[in-house]
Automatic annotation (TrEMBL):
Residues 13-82, 97-347 form the Amine oxidase domain. It comes from the Bacteria. This is Monoamine oxidase. Belongs to the flavin monoamine oxidase family. GO terms for molecular function: oxidoreductase activity. Pfam families: Amino_oxidase (PF01593). The chain crosses the membrane at residues 6-22. Keywords: Membrane, Transmembrane, Transmembrane helix. Signal peptide: none annotated.
Length: 354
């Protein structure tokens, strides 16, 4: 059994950032992570001869001031997403793809230099590894007179205050509470959209960016599918195309998805696509610590930033953080940073009142 004043549930961007901020305040939280890796929905695939492939969070904008300030604090650079002047648009299956001008006034998107997980690695490096416990899915949280007892399959943790950074729906679906959480919270959380949960991200890597030599840019928008959007995902000297596949295809095999992606790209670039080096994908709906089935249809960002997530529960011993709880840019990396700072402020108030 491990005892700590503060336990953070979830070792993704939110959990690591909260730990980083608390450590700057002289506090030493423990982090419990269900997966065998840190980062959560930030997941960068790496290979020496390929560019970093982002299977999770990828882009940010100049409006994301919380995130930009953090990156500046960590000494991490950003660079502008390559879009080009033209892209392909595929309106319907009976019509060939059209090469169209991209809007010149479109707000630029940016990416994190070195890969999005550069943020995760930098935050982790600032923490004592003894604070981090992976392969520890939280099963129950029980309140006693003076503590929260947090039980995983393998261990017990005691805390004065716990901060959950799990997506709200995953928190109420996967963790048993004693006493029960308020009905209003469980109702709202169970209908809160989890960012990334239904996404299928696919990528093909190449030894040259041939799409930049066809008066195009690697930017694709398709109403036909199976890939609905695709973008240039290259670095200076390593090349890839990455996009989003329609969620309907989560039911078919990986090999079928790969062949469907290749067939679709042939419609735009012909046989050059066959020279791909590797195919990468991640079906987020098959990630049990990111997805929980909805009982009824919900819309993207539903209940994200809801006021109930700003409250403390179990006599101020349980706080809820994470991108879905942010009041600014919920569902984005910027929302992670905003919610982390809010959670730290709440934590100080909770500790002072206990």
């Amino acid at each position: 059994m491990k005892t700590s004043n503060i336990v953070i549930i979830g070792g993704g961007f939110s959990g690591l950032l909260i730990a980083y901020l608390l450590q700057k305040e002289g506090l030493r939280p423990q982090i419990i992570e269900a997966r065998n890796r840190l980062g959560g929905r930030i997941y960068t695939l790496r290979s020496d001869d390929e560019p970093p492939i982002e299977m999770g969070a990828t882009w940010l904008g100049k409006k994301h001031r919380h995130l930009l300030d953090l990156l500046d604090d960590l000494g991490i650079d950003i660079y502008q997403q390559y879009m080009g002047d033209k892209g392909y648009y595929e309106p319907m299956s009976v019509s060939p793809p059209q090469l169209v001008d991209l809007p010149p006034n479109e707000e630029p998107s940016y990416r994190i230099a070195g890969g999005t997980d550069n943020v995760i690695q930098t935050l982790e490096e600032g923490l004592d590894q003894r604070q981090i416990h992976i392969d520890q899915a939280v099963q129950t949280i029980r309140q006693t007179d003076t503590k929260l007892v947090i039980e995983t399959e393998n261990d017990l943790f005691k805390a004065d205050v716990a901060i959950s950074t799990l997506p709200p729906k995953l928190l109420v679906d996967n963790v048993d509470f004693s006493p029960s959480l308020p009905e209003e919270l469980t109702h709202i959380a169970s209908q809160t959209h989890t960012w990334m949960a239904e996404s299928i991200k696919v990528a093909l890597t190449f030894d040259e960016p041939f799409w930049r030599n066809t008066d195009s840019s690697g930017t694709i928008f398709s109403n036909v599918g199976p890939v609905s959007e695709m973008y240039d995902h290259s670095t200076d000297n390593q090349y890839a195309l990455k996009g989003f596949m329609n969620n309907d295809y989560q039911a078919v095999s990986r090999e079928e998805r790969k062949q469907l992606v290749i067939e679709q790209l042939r419609r735009f670039y012909g046989g050059k696509v066959d020279s791909y080096q590797s195919y990468r994908e991640l079906v987020w709906q098959k990630e049990p610590f990111s997805y929980s089935n909805y009982e009824q249809p919900i819309v993207p960002h539903q209940h994200n930033g809801h006021a109930i997530f700003q409250k403390a529960f179990l006599d101020k011993r349980l706080l809820i953080a994470g991108s879905e709880t942010a009041t600014e840019f919920p569902g984005y990396m910027d929302g992670v940073v905003e919610s982390a700072h809010r959670a730290v402020r709440q934590l100080k108030q909770s500790l002072s009142s206990l």
